[in-house]
Amino acid sequence: MKQLNGDRNQCPGCGEYFNSSFAFDKHRTGDFGTNRRCLTVPEMESKKMAKNTAGFWVSEKMPQDRIQP
Predict the structure, then answer these.
(1) Is 90 exceeded by the pLDDT of residue 69?
(2) CB 3.0–4.6 Å: which of 18, 31, 40, 69 could bond 23 by disulfide?
(3) Cα atoms in the Cβ-side hemisphere of radius 13 Å centred on 17
(4) Which pLDDT tens digit goes with each residue over 3-23?
(5) Beta strands per DSSP E along the chain
């Protein structure tokens, strides 16, 4: 189990971990009460979502030139 603090969270539906509420919301699709569901891993990747080094999904992968050594 990953450490959840700050805005990090785990989806109760699919069990994936997210670095922010924004990333969590991005992985949900469909209309409330009818066909709301979690995106699959390939669907999240097609939306440019990625896992960070801590194993949490982020809304978009950080560009290489912005990553500090």
Answers:
(1) no
(2) 18
(3) 14
(4) 899 999 999 999 999 999 999
(5) 9-10, 17-18, 28-29, 37-38, 50-51, 57-58
Domain that holds residue 28: 9-64
Of 45, 52, 42, whose CA–CA distance to 17 is shortest? 52
> What total of structural domains would you count in the chain?
1
- Whole-angstrom distance, CA of residue 2 vs CA of residue 37: 23
Terminus-to-terminus CA distance in the chain, angstroms? Answer: 27
Model confidence pLDDT, tens digit, residues 37-55: 999 999 999 999 999 999 9
Asked, for residue 32, whether it belongs to a domain, the answer is: yes
